[in-house]
Design goal:
Layout lengths: L1 H24 E3 L5 E3 L49 H4 L43 H4 L3 H4 L13 E6 L8 H20 L4 E5 L27 E4 L2 H10 L8 H25 L14 E7 L7 H15 L6 E7 L4 H13 L12 E5 H7 L18 H9 L32
Parallel strand pairs: 3-4, 3-6, 6-7, 7-8
Antiparallel strand pairs: 1-2, 4-5
Helix pairs in contact: 5-6, 7-8
Length: 431
């Protein structure tokens, strides 16, 4: 009996060893079949690498492939991993089984895409200290549009200074009214702040207005005694009708009174910028460039030259843009002495100043435009107005010394060259 038991034990031991050997030499495919193991570790009949094959018998039943059910579709390697994976929690799982889209924790993160917007983003404008006067200077190329040739007026404060001396009575006074009737509507349409009007002798006071109330507060940088921020062309006519010509021609004194508060305000704005650590030109929204139109018929009775030279020197000391202040003298009438003096201002002002000064003065005579357009002040084939001004003539009168490109600009299709010695030329010569 013991012999039989011994033989049975040997037999069981032999078959057990054989079974263990066979078990080690085969692998399960998950459906009950076995396949010989290839040297590379993958099944000879399966093209799937070991890392992506079905779970082995040692894994949990819930994760095995089951007979009668389709094999799960493999997730493309370029898709992100699902929020939860049972494989990652199983013992013995390797990083090789993770989807290829997962990146190491230390990998650099790509910058997020910009948000979708319906308009393009314009680069920030350079600070005033980075601007050059050439790029910031108003010219016909960057301020004049085909739809509106007077669009540049919105960039400037337009100031009219009217000669109301005794010599302006009669025809010159009526002609000045015509000038305002032609130019003011264009200015008030484009300048959101309106225009300012000053007279050489008349001062805007409550008494002058026929009332006993207080005068309106004077805006910063502007002189007292004027009509500020006038936006109604009809109001301009009413103001003009209340003034009666009389007295001398104190052009220098009146311009000095207008320059001083403006230059002080400009200097204060520059000082505010420097206190903030900013350098450059003040923002035009804070203090706009000035275009001053002086309408006169004669020679000043005071020292206008000195006033203009001092203002130019002050602007130069500020290193202000060349277009910051422009003075346009518009002659009424045909007085030869007045025309000669205006040419002197245009051509010779500051010639005796060491180092020179900026050119901020431009002059245009009334009858020069008439003759250049072959018209007359009484009618004829030329312009049918007493002015004889074309749109280009008004443009030059308004812009004047501010945009130097307009100098020597002909007014009208038949205008002779500006350097023609046969004509009375009162336009600024090219420097």
């Amino acid at each position: 009996m013991s012999n039989n038991n011994g033989r049975d034990g040997v037999r069981k031991s032999f078959f057990g060893s054989l079974k263990n050997s066979l078990r080690k030499g085969t692998s399960s495919n998950g459906d009950g079949s076995v396949s010989p193991v290839s040297p590379g570790g993958a099944s000879a009949s399966s093209p799937i690498p070991p890392a992506n094959r079905g779970l082995s018998a040692s894994q949990t039943p819930s994760s095995r492939s089951r007979p009668g059910f389709p094999e799960p579709t493999r997730r493309p390697s370029n898709e992100p991993p699902p929020p939860y994976s049972a494989i990652s929690e199983l013992p013995g799982s390797t990083p090789a089984a993770a989807p290829a889209a997962s990146a190491p924790a230390t990998a650099p993160t790509a910058a997020p895409a910009p948000p979708a917007i319906g308009f393009s983003i314009r680069p920030a404008s350079p600070t005033p200290s980075q601007r050059s006067s050439a790029s910031a200077r108003p010219t016909i190329d960057n301020v004049r549009s085909a739809e509106d040739p007077y669009a540049f007026l919105s960039m400037f404060d337009t100031i009219f200074v009217i000669d109301d001396s005794g010599s302006m009575a009669g025809r010159p006074w009526r002609e000045v009214q015509a000038v305002l009737a032609n130019i003011t509507p264009i200015c008030t349409q484009h300048d959101a702040d309106g225009i300012d009007i000053y007279f050489l002798n008349h001062k805007n006071t409550p008494a002058a207005q026929g009332g006993g109330g207080q005068q309106a507060r004077v805006p910063p940088g502007k002189a007292v005694g004027g009509y500020h921020n006038v936006t109604d062309a009809a109001a301009v006519s009413r103001i003009f009708q209340t003034v009666k010509p009389g007295g001398a021609t104190p052009t220098g004194t009146r311009l000095h009174n207008i320059f001083q508060p403006y230059l002080r305000y400009y200097e204060a704005k520059r000082n505010e910028m420097e206190q903030r650590g900013e350098y450059g030109d003040p923002d035009p929204d804070d203090i706009k460039p000035v275009n001053m139109i002086v309408i006169t018929d004669g020679v000043p009775t005071d020292d206008l030259d000195t006033v203009l030279v001092r203002a130019a020197k002050k602007l130069d000391s500020f290193d202000a843009p060349p277009f910051q202040v422009g003075v346009q003298f518009f002659q009424v009438g045909t007085e030869a002495e007045a025309a000669a003096y205006l040419r002197h201002l245009d051509d010779n002002l500051g010639n005796d100043v060491a180092g020179g000064i900026r050119d901020m003065v431009d002059t245009v005579t009334w009858d020069a435009f008439v003759s250049m357009n072959h018209g007359s002040t009484t009618g004829g084939s030329g312009p049918s107005t007493a002015l004889g001004l074309t749109a280009d003539g008004i443009l030059k009168a308004v812009l004047g010394a501010v945009v130097k490109r307009l100098d020597r600009r002909p007014t009208g299709p038949s205008a002779p060259p500006a350097n023609d010695p046969s004509t009375h030329r009162y336009l600024t010569p090219q420097r």
